[in-house]
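Need tokens for this chain, all 131 residues.
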Amino acid sequence: MLLKIISAAINNSNTKLNLKKGDLLLIDFITASVNPAKFPDPYKIKLDRPKDSYIVFGYGSHSCVRREIVVIAIVAQLRVFGKLKNLRRAPGQAGMLKIKYASGTFKVYINEDWSDWTPYPASLKVHFDDF
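Here are the structure tokens for all 131 residues:
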């Protein structure tokens, strides 16, 4: 997410925005990444999507400097998950990803004992039978 202070008035009648200088604007890259008008079938895994169509790591000058490290880590993690036999969610509450909306605006994740929130998923447990 990106929080910007508007430096000049913006009036976009197509989306009914009327932003004035000094207004705060929250830009949610995650929500933008599942907009079906810009990202067809956003909830389907499609390995042939163009790499530059993903903006979850930001865009342009607001791009995450650790993007390449995170992508390598995700690929390594998915390779391990792909080898696990009968990978599945744990039964009951342990297999549920606990989320809430902070300030009613953006999603945060709740840790296992519900004592704190984090910007990263932390509560979903999985089971598997073998490597």
